[in-house]
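ugh ok fine here u go
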Amino acid sequence: MRHSLLSLMIFLFNYFSCEQPIRSEGDKFGGLLIVYNDTASTISLELLEVNLIINPSKDRIAIIKDLRPGNYSLFVKDNTKEMIIKGIHVSSDSITIVPFYLLIRDAGNTLLDPEKNKRLFTKIRMYGTIPFASISGKVFDGITHKPLKESTVMLKDFPWWSTKTDENGNFCINKLMPGFFIVFADHPNYHREYVLKVQLFNDSTSVINFFLPPLLIPEAPIPKIWDGTITEGPCR
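structure:
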Protein backbone atom coordinates (compact mmCIF):
# COMPACT_ATOMS: atom_id res chain seq x y z
CA MET A 1 0.00 0.00 0.00
CA ARG A 2 2.79 2.37 1.00
CA HIS A 3 4.68 1.51 -2.18
CA SER A 4 1.60 2.21 -4.33
CA LEU A 5 1.01 5.56 -2.64
CA LEU A 6 4.64 6.53 -3.15
CA SER A 7 4.44 5.61 -6.85
CA LEU A 8 1.29 7.69 -7.25
CA MET A 9 2.95 10.69 -5.59
CA ILE A 10 5.98 10.40 -7.89
CA PHE A 11 3.70 10.16 -10.94
CA LEU A 12 1.70 13.25 -9.94
CA PHE A 13 4.87 15.22 -9.19
CA ASN A 14 6.37 14.38 -12.57
CA TYR A 15 3.11 15.11 -14.39
CA PHE A 16 2.61 18.58 -12.95
CA SER A 17 6.27 19.60 -12.96
CA CYS A 18 6.84 18.73 -16.61
CA GLU A 19 5.80 21.00 -19.44
CA GLN A 20 2.32 20.04 -20.54
CA PRO A 21 1.71 18.85 -24.09
CA ILE A 22 0.03 21.10 -26.59
CA ARG A 23 -3.71 20.96 -26.01
CA SER A 24 -6.47 21.45 -28.50
CA GLU A 25 -9.10 24.18 -28.13
CA GLY A 26 -11.71 22.50 -30.29
CA ASP A 27 -11.19 21.95 -33.99
CA LYS A 28 -9.79 25.42 -34.69
CA PHE A 29 -6.15 26.20 -35.23
CA GLY A 30 -3.98 29.26 -34.79
CA GLY A 31 -0.72 30.51 -36.19
CA LEU A 32 2.44 32.51 -35.67
CA LEU A 33 3.81 35.54 -37.44
CA ILE A 34 7.55 35.84 -36.76
CA VAL A 35 9.13 39.18 -37.65
CA TYR A 36 12.83 39.17 -38.51
CA ASN A 37 15.35 41.97 -38.42
CA ASP A 38 17.48 43.16 -41.34
CA THR A 39 20.05 40.37 -40.87
CA ALA A 40 17.56 37.57 -41.43
CA SER A 41 19.95 35.69 -43.71
CA THR A 42 22.24 34.95 -40.75
CA ILE A 43 19.48 33.56 -38.53
CA SER A 44 18.39 29.97 -38.00
CA LEU A 45 15.01 29.37 -36.35
CA GLU A 46 13.30 26.16 -35.28
CA LEU A 47 9.87 25.69 -33.72
CA LEU A 48 10.78 22.89 -31.35
CA GLU A 49 7.43 21.27 -30.60
CA VAL A 50 6.75 20.54 -34.27
CA ASN A 51 10.38 20.17 -35.42
CA LEU A 52 9.85 22.91 -37.97
CA ILE A 53 12.84 24.73 -39.48
CA ILE A 54 11.90 28.31 -40.37
CA ASN A 55 13.88 29.73 -43.26
CA PRO A 56 14.67 33.44 -43.46
CA SER A 57 12.51 35.44 -45.85
CA LYS A 58 13.32 38.51 -47.90
CA ASP A 59 10.07 39.97 -46.57
CA ARG A 60 11.46 39.69 -43.02
CA ILE A 61 8.42 37.73 -41.86
CA ALA A 62 7.49 34.07 -41.53
CA ILE A 63 3.93 32.76 -41.33
CA ILE A 64 3.34 29.40 -39.66
CA LYS A 65 -0.23 28.17 -40.16
CA ASP A 66 -2.39 25.40 -38.72
CA LEU A 67 -0.78 25.17 -35.28
CA ARG A 68 -2.71 23.52 -32.49
CA PRO A 69 -3.44 25.90 -29.59
CA GLY A 70 -0.86 25.71 -26.82
CA ASN A 71 2.61 26.88 -25.85
CA TYR A 72 5.56 26.73 -28.23
CA SER A 73 9.31 27.28 -28.03
CA LEU A 74 11.46 28.95 -30.68
CA PHE A 75 15.13 27.98 -30.92
CA VAL A 76 17.23 30.86 -32.25
CA LYS A 77 20.78 30.69 -33.59
CA ASP A 78 22.89 33.24 -35.43
CA ASN A 79 26.58 34.01 -35.78
CA THR A 80 26.96 35.22 -32.20
CA LYS A 81 24.34 33.62 -29.97
CA GLU A 82 21.93 30.79 -29.31
CA MET A 83 18.75 31.07 -27.26
CA ILE A 84 15.27 29.69 -26.76
CA ILE A 85 12.16 31.85 -26.60
CA LYS A 86 9.74 29.80 -24.49
CA GLY A 87 6.05 30.02 -23.75
CA ILE A 88 4.87 31.55 -27.04
CA HIS A 89 1.13 30.97 -26.75
CA VAL A 90 -0.98 30.18 -29.77
CA SER A 91 -4.76 30.53 -29.45
CA SER A 92 -7.42 29.15 -31.75
CA ASP A 93 -8.54 31.37 -34.61
CA SER A 94 -5.83 33.98 -34.02
CA ILE A 95 -2.30 34.91 -35.00
CA THR A 96 0.38 35.47 -32.36
CA ILE A 97 2.95 38.02 -33.50
CA VAL A 98 6.51 37.40 -32.31
CA PRO A 99 8.62 40.55 -32.88
CA PHE A 100 11.82 38.56 -32.99
CA TYR A 101 14.13 41.50 -33.62
CA LEU A 102 12.88 43.33 -30.52
CA LEU A 103 13.30 40.28 -28.32
CA ILE A 104 16.95 39.66 -29.23
CA ARG A 105 18.08 43.26 -29.70
CA ASP A 106 19.56 43.56 -26.22
CA ALA A 107 19.75 39.89 -25.31
CA GLY A 108 22.91 37.87 -24.83
CA ASN A 109 23.06 34.09 -24.57
CA THR A 110 19.95 33.97 -22.45
CA LEU A 111 16.69 32.13 -22.02
CA LEU A 112 13.91 34.59 -22.78
CA ASP A 113 10.66 34.46 -20.87
CA PRO A 114 7.65 35.90 -22.71
CA GLU A 115 5.87 36.33 -19.37
CA LYS A 116 8.27 39.22 -18.76
CA ASN A 117 7.75 40.59 -22.25
CA LYS A 118 3.97 40.32 -22.65
CA ARG A 119 3.71 43.66 -24.37
CA LEU A 120 5.83 42.28 -27.23
CA PHE A 121 3.46 39.41 -27.96
CA THR A 122 0.40 40.65 -29.79
CA LYS A 123 -2.56 38.69 -31.12
CA ILE A 124 -4.63 39.46 -34.19
CA ARG A 125 -7.93 37.77 -34.79
CA MET A 126 -8.01 35.99 -38.11
CA TYR A 127 -10.45 36.92 -40.86
CA GLY A 128 -10.63 33.95 -43.18
CA THR A 129 -7.31 32.60 -44.37
CA ILE A 130 -3.86 33.81 -43.36
CA PRO A 131 -2.91 36.63 -44.99
CA PHE A 132 -2.54 38.89 -46.98
CA ALA A 133 -4.09 42.36 -46.92
CA SER A 134 -2.84 45.72 -48.19
CA ILE A 135 -3.14 49.38 -47.34
CA SER A 136 -2.58 52.37 -49.62
CA GLY A 137 -3.36 56.07 -50.04
CA LYS A 138 -1.77 59.50 -50.11
CA VAL A 139 -0.37 62.00 -47.62
CA PHE A 140 -1.11 65.71 -48.14
CA ASP A 141 -0.26 69.02 -46.55
CA GLY A 142 -3.37 69.80 -44.53
CA ILE A 143 -3.42 73.48 -45.63
CA THR A 144 -2.26 73.50 -49.26
CA HIS A 145 -3.33 69.91 -50.07
CA LYS A 146 -0.02 69.39 -51.85
CA PRO A 147 1.37 65.82 -51.67
CA LEU A 148 4.05 65.21 -49.04
CA LYS A 149 6.90 62.98 -50.17
CA GLU A 150 9.06 61.06 -47.70
CA SER A 151 6.24 60.87 -45.15
CA THR A 152 6.23 57.81 -42.91
CA VAL A 153 3.06 55.72 -42.82
CA MET A 154 2.93 53.03 -40.14
CA LEU A 155 0.57 50.66 -38.38
CA LYS A 156 0.63 51.69 -34.72
CA ASP A 157 2.52 49.20 -32.50
CA PHE A 158 3.79 47.31 -35.58
CA PRO A 159 6.87 49.27 -36.76
CA TRP A 160 7.92 46.62 -39.26
CA TRP A 161 4.75 47.41 -41.24
CA SER A 162 5.70 50.87 -42.46
CA THR A 163 6.74 52.69 -45.61
CA LYS A 164 7.64 56.12 -47.06
CA THR A 165 5.56 58.08 -49.52
CA ASP A 166 6.91 58.64 -53.03
CA GLU A 167 7.33 61.90 -54.97
CA ASN A 168 3.55 62.19 -55.35
CA GLY A 169 2.73 61.41 -51.73
CA ASN A 170 1.57 57.86 -52.52
CA PHE A 171 2.19 54.87 -50.29
CA CYS A 172 1.50 51.13 -50.45
CA ILE A 173 2.10 48.43 -47.84
CA ASN A 174 1.48 44.80 -48.80
CA LYS A 175 1.48 41.48 -46.95
CA LEU A 176 -0.35 42.71 -43.87
CA MET A 177 -2.40 40.64 -41.47
CA PRO A 178 -6.19 40.97 -41.68
CA GLY A 179 -7.71 42.68 -38.65
CA PHE A 180 -8.40 46.09 -37.09
CA PHE A 181 -5.53 48.58 -36.77
CA ILE A 182 -4.63 52.17 -36.00
CA VAL A 183 -2.62 53.74 -38.83
CA PHE A 184 -0.74 57.02 -38.69
CA ALA A 185 1.23 59.31 -40.98
CA ASP A 186 4.22 61.36 -39.85
CA HIS A 187 6.41 64.01 -41.48
CA PRO A 188 8.97 66.55 -40.17
CA ASN A 189 7.41 69.94 -39.39
CA TYR A 190 3.90 68.45 -39.41
CA HIS A 191 1.59 67.05 -36.76
CA ARG A 192 1.14 63.31 -36.81
CA GLU A 193 -2.33 62.16 -37.84
CA TYR A 194 -3.99 58.95 -36.63
CA VAL A 195 -6.78 57.01 -38.32
CA LEU A 196 -8.68 54.60 -36.08
CA LYS A 197 -10.52 51.33 -36.73
CA VAL A 198 -8.87 50.62 -40.07
CA GLN A 199 -10.02 47.14 -41.10
CA LEU A 200 -7.81 45.07 -43.37
CA PHE A 201 -9.26 42.20 -45.37
CA ASN A 202 -7.67 39.34 -47.30
CA ASP A 203 -6.99 39.97 -50.98
CA SER A 204 -8.02 43.62 -50.82
CA THR A 205 -6.60 47.08 -50.16
CA SER A 206 -7.89 49.47 -47.52
CA VAL A 207 -7.44 53.07 -48.71
CA ILE A 208 -6.57 56.00 -46.41
CA ASN A 209 -5.68 59.61 -47.20
CA PHE A 210 -3.92 61.78 -44.62
CA PHE A 211 -3.98 65.58 -44.33
CA LEU A 212 -1.22 66.69 -41.97
CA PRO A 213 -1.44 70.18 -40.42
CA PRO A 214 1.87 72.08 -40.14
CA LEU A 215 3.41 72.46 -36.68
CA LEU A 216 2.78 76.21 -36.99
CA ILE A 217 -0.82 75.31 -36.17
CA PRO A 218 -0.67 74.57 -32.42
CA GLU A 219 -3.50 72.05 -32.23
CA ALA A 220 -2.76 68.48 -33.24
CA PRO A 221 -5.49 66.85 -35.35
CA ILE A 222 -8.11 64.76 -33.57
CA PRO A 223 -7.84 61.08 -34.56
CA LYS A 224 -10.42 60.24 -37.18
CA ILE A 225 -12.35 57.07 -37.97
CA TRP A 226 -11.55 55.26 -41.19
CA ASP A 227 -14.17 55.84 -43.90
CA GLY A 228 -14.17 52.20 -45.06
CA THR A 229 -12.87 52.68 -48.63
CA ILE A 230 -11.72 49.33 -50.10
CA THR A 231 -10.41 48.21 -53.49
CA GLU A 232 -9.88 44.65 -54.74
CA GLY A 233 -6.48 42.98 -54.79
CA PRO A 234 -3.13 44.20 -53.43
CA CYS A 235 -1.90 47.76 -53.92
CA ARG A 236 0.98 48.43 -56.32
